[in-house]
Amino acid sequence: MSGVGMGLALVLAMSVAGQPAMAIGNDDRIQPSGGAMILDAVVARPLLAAATLGGTAIFLVSLPFSALGGNVDTAAETLIKTPAEATFRRCLGCEVSRRADER
Q: Transmembrane segments in this chain: where (predicted)?
């Protein structure tokens, strides 16, 4: 993937991951629809995985500057942990980065 393509995938994936969750009442028993699960598996998860890899690469390149600035933890949280949790931790079709059994 070219640098522009990777950057575009990273921006798109981060915008998908950064969307606020829309709560429908207080009913935690609401399950994602089949369409949401399919869209999540086919589109969102691959983009978020690419964002995790891209964020890791950007983090490694910027690590000396983050270390000098004293914000290594913040950079790691933003560039690696947030997209990784959205990719691997949240339930399929869910909008909140939590496992289904943690609701």
A: 47-68
